[in-house]
Amino acid sequence: MREFDLHAELAKLPSCPGVYIMHDARDRILYVGKAKILKRRVSQYFREGSKLSPKIRRMVSQVNWFEYIVVASELESLVLENNLIKEHRPPYNTLLKDDKTYPFIKVTVDEPFPRVFLTRIREKDKARYFGPFANGVAINDTIELLRKIYRIRTCNRALPSTDPNLRPCLYAQIGQCDAPCVGLVTGEAYAEMVTKVLRFLGGDYSDGIAYLTKRMEEASAELEFEKAAEFRDLIGRVKALAQVQHASDTHLDERDIIALAREGEHCVVQVFFERNGRLIGREHFHMMETDERGDAEVLSAFLRQFYEGTPYIPREVMTEILPEEAELLEQWLSMKREQPVHIRSPKIGVKERLVRLAKDNARMVIAKDLEKITREEARTLGAMRDLAAMLEIEELHRVESFDISNISGFHSVGSMVVFRDGRARKSDYRKFRIRSVDGPDDYASMREVLTRRFTHGLEEREGGSFSVFPDLILMDGGKGQIEVAEEVLASLGLAIPVCGMVKDDRHRTRGLYYRGSEIALSGASHGVSGANAEVAALVTRIQDETHRFAIEYHRKLRSKEQTKSVLDEIPGIGPARRRALMSYFKSMAELRDATEEEISGVPGMNKAAAASVYGFLHGDAQEKEPSGE
Q: 145 to each of 111, 130, 149, 224, 374, how far by Cα in Å?
């Protein structure tokens, strides 16, 4: 337990800007906040008589200690707060549920022969960016269309090239690139095409339609009707792209139009992306932990998290109401854009109607998705709350589950899967190759896995992938595995509840073994409704995912070992060539299907070695290959 004198630490707080971080008894970050004056802001949480919402009171009751970081200005505190919230996603912060990045079309106008491609990172370079777009598929379609009309390259070759052996690629052979790599187009002619591409992406489709119409008429006059039909279809696609714009403003500017709608605990924020007076896309986002916060506070949290994650900042952000700390947000956005950015709340005219349109769309999303959201929350957050009540655990957000996989002790491996608020958190999954156990000893293997996981976590408590500890450990096994887990935790001075997942004779989740007795969950899979069914479904998902992850890792190791054992027996194939073959071909099946010529193309191989491999795999020697399982 961390020694922390709350009153003494409050007295030490400085009267300057900074960020404060609230921790619970297990060092889990509960809340991240910023303050213009740290001493005044943090003290408010713990002062008797402070007017705190019920949720904040609940948070304060769990605070075991806090830390703070002093910065030079309030703007710096906002930036740091954003970064910490994005990294740790504290449960009591208002969070943007949909953590998305949006694609752009990038035209590298600073290169001798510019390229056109999709990117999700807007760099500080001389390239031209168009977007962001909500639909990546639509961007790929647009790039394909540009390639067919203007034959602009999309490769990453450094041009001009002095390589005499360079050959045109497939796109040049099918007429979708003018092959500047081999000098089949002059720099002036290519630059003219790039200018037309920029006009096209800016919304001027007249050049493209005129060019395609001319080509269609030429093909028709030469009785090449199939080619004429292709140009006709391309004209249709360009016209369809031009008609996608459903709303526009006479002022050719760029702005994001943002509004929110609420229904009980649910909150949706709708964003319209307007560029050059055209509405190029829209997207909605669900916000969490908003029920005790006003619209201005929620809007402020959304703007900070959304623009921290998107690479493009427009000149203007229009909102239905001004967010909290609008002036500070304007400073921050202007700093990121490196040009002035304004946040405005229009009350009359076209702009007000656009904001109202965004709000209407947000309301429609809530009406459409409310049932789905409610159902999803029941199977995730609701199931976690019910599981916590069932096991008498005060707070349950993070669950870790462990399993061991081996065949007669061969390549024993351990798996750790993580569920956060009822959803799989795959970025936190971990695999363990058993080092200290020989033979099929699942208990000893589990002891090694848990010891390594939590020892590593204790060593990096100030940060790192293992530093966040679970609220509950689920074991894919019964009493024996639970005892192993409890012994490891006790030896490390940790108090984390451990529960076993028990299956019936038909390999279905039957119940939970906890504190010496079994809690029945069977029946949930047989039509029983209510909390028991949702908990059973959640536990089943966790158990199945744990088992799948362990078996997948074990199968991968076996596959590598089998591949290696086969290649070991081929005459003339040493370690370097074995590694080259295993790296080049994804599986033994792919290697076996390869021709002798394809094998000889592997780095480090020659014709003699390729003939040896091919002969071994297609002769009598192939019978030596391990049978698998």
A: 21, 15, 6, 21, 41
